[in-house]
């Protein structure tokens, strides 16, 4: 987004309209802050490298955290 805290504004608006919101990997707003205001916010992470145990452990850790 080009506006200050634009991702937060977008997250609130899309949650109110009950439509998905996709968050850019280039966002300057923390994912946790967007998730706190927008229940329809969605972020897909592309993790580099092979599907090794370290990466699987990292993904499991992220999935277990509450936002």
Descriptive account of the structure:
- By secondary structure, the protein is mainly alpha-helical.
- The protein has one domain.
- The protein contains 3 helices and 2 strands, in the order αβαβα.
- The protein has helices spanning 6-17, 31-37, 53-64; strands at residues 21-22, 41-42.
- A two-stranded parallel ribbon has the order 1-2.
- α1 packs parallel to α2.
- The protein is elongated, with a radius of gyration of 14 Å.
- The mean pLDDT is 81.
Protein topology:
Layout: H1 6-17, E1 21-22, H2 31-37, E2 41-42, H3 53-64
Parallel strand pairs: 1-2
Q: Going across the major beta sheet, what is the strand order?
A: 1-2
Spans where pLDDT lies below 50 across 5 or more residues: none
Number of self-contained structural domains: 1
Tell me, what's the shape? Answer: elongated
SS strand fraction:
5-15%
**DSSP strand count:** 2
Instruction: Average the pLDDT over all residues and give the rounded result.
Output: 81
The first-to-last residue Cα distance is 22 Å
Largest sheet: 2 strands, parallel
List keywords for this structure.
67 residues; mainly alpha; two-stranded parallel sheet; 6% strand; elongated
């Amino acid at each position: 987004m080009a506006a200050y805290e634009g991702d937060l504004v977008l997250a609130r608006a899309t949650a109110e309209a009950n439509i998905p919101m996709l968050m850019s990997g280039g966002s300057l707003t923390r994912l946790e802050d967007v998730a706190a205001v927008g229940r329809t916010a969605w972020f897909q992470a592309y993790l580099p490298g092979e599907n090794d145990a370290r990466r699987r452990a990292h993904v499991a850790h992220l999935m277990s955290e509450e936002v």
